Amino acid sequence: MAPRPNSVKAPRPFDPALAATYPAVIGCDEVGRGALCGPVMVAAVWFDPIAFPPEILARLDDSKRLDRAAREALTPLIRAHARVSLAAGSRALVDRVNVRGATLDAMRRAVLGLGLDATVLVDGRDPIPGLTQGCRAVIGGDRLVPQIAAASIVAKTFRDEIMRRLAPRHPAYAWERNAGYGTAAHLAGLTAQGRSPHHRLSFTGRFEAARGSGFSPHPHDPLA
Prior knowledge:
By secondary structure, the protein is an alpha/beta fold. It is built from eight helices and five strands, in the order ββααβααββαααα.
């Protein structure tokens, strides 16, 4: 029997046979920009795809397309075979300068932390300001540039772990399941308990204003 169309998994985007066509660049991506609480986490990753283990290259993808087990298995492999730098935009910085500014600042610090003069490709629409080397934004880059995919995996693994460690201190919000995103369980906790010290005032203020006018929760649980 042929598999149903929705049961067929999409192939991973990076073919080791094409490694020579992928440039040796720094890839940069963020996780947590849309969360209601916690930091924005950024990773910057550099490797030469020709020298990178092909069995790992074949498993890279946008972190949102991988389950938790796959991300956690890949993260130490990426760190063992690539140059990796992490930086975070804190909840306080998000509230002080806005989430876009906090994200770009963390991206700049992550790239500088590598100490490399390689070209930077960053997922999204915004090039990173304050760099001396070339930088270009790539929409959908985590399925086009293997280093961006690797950065998305590392950043998500680290941020999800931060939120899981915070969860027992604030059990009302179910952060161990939603990583601080606006799921129904998280919004219910906000309604019952109010804000924690980790909630972004700029984000949860919007939630409170919209609560009575059809505010809808985040459509999926990002820790699935």
